[in-house]
């Protein structure tokens, strides 16, 4: 899956292992890089939801769309 980012600054940060480590530290950087790699492995967001990945759930009440 192709991941898009809100702005160019976040995209540069998330696409650079060195920058992630500098900003978030080694332990958090590993988790962020692992999550991004996992998301890239899915074909689309529907696959992510069906896999139960990341604690996603159906929205309810006024947040239901």
Helix content: 55-70%
Number of E-type strands: 0
Mean pLDDT: 87
Category from helices, strands and their pairing = mainly alpha
**Strand content bin:** under 5%
* Structural domain tally: 1
Question: Which regions are unreliable across 5 or more consecutive residues at pLDDT < 50?
Answer: none
Estimated radius of gyration: 14 Å
- Termini separation comes to 23 Å
Instruction: Encode the helix/strand succession as letters.
Output: HHH
- Major sheet: none
Shape: elongated
Number of helices: 3
Characteristics of this structure?
65 residues, elongated, 0% strand, 3 helices, mainly alpha
Structure description:
- With 65 residues, this protein is mainly α.
- It has one domain (8-63).
- 60% of the residues lie in helices and 0% in strands.
- The chain has helices spanning 8-14, 17-41, 45-51.
- The mean pLDDT is 87.
Task: Give a brief outline of the structure.
The chain is an all-alpha fold. It has helices at 8-14, 17-41, 45-51. The protein starts with 7 loop residues before the first helix and ends in a 14-residue tail after the last helix.
Topology readout:
Layout lengths: L7 H7 L2 H25 L3 H7 L14
């Amino acid at each position: 899956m192709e991941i898009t980012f809100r702005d160019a600054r976040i995209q540069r940060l998330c696409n650079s292992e060195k920058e992630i480590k500098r900003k978030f530290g080694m332990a958090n950087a590993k988790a962020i890089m692992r999550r991004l790699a996992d998301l890239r492995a899915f074909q689309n967001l529907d696959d992510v939801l069906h896999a139960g990945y990341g604690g996603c759930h159906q929205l309810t009440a006024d947040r239901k769309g």
